[in-house]
Design a protein that fits this description.
Radius of gyration: 14 Å
Distance between the termini: 5 Å
Helix content: 10-25%
Number of domains: 1
Order of helices and strands: EHEHEEHHEEE
Shape: globular
Structural class: alpha/beta
Amino acid sequence: MEIKIKSLDNIREAAKAFLDGMGTGKVFAFYGKMGAGKTTFIKAICEELGVTDVITSPTFALVNEYTAADGSPIYHFDFYRIKKLDEVYDMGYEDYFYGGSLCFLEWPELIEEILPEDVTKVTITEEADGSRKVVW
């Protein structure tokens, strides 16, 4: 599927479209260059799911946990600062990835070898006009 985000003004609409088209997957790996909008888009998705917590990039914490409107947990990961896979093993990634809750991963290319087989790969690219294209 593909969504175009023309500006921040329509990011919530794009997030809703993403949720409508994401299927039954639980683990979503977001690929894109620095500044492509991964965190901003994940924030919009979480807001559409009813998260009322402050949603920020877990760059230093590695994972942030949010609660959706239905009470279910959502896990938001940022692996940008990962130096060794041992750090991910130590955090108990399997409990998150295989626990049945939604997981949104930024910088998954740094942990590619341990991603679940059924991970949904999402690519965000910046277009020449400044809009973003989301493909999964």
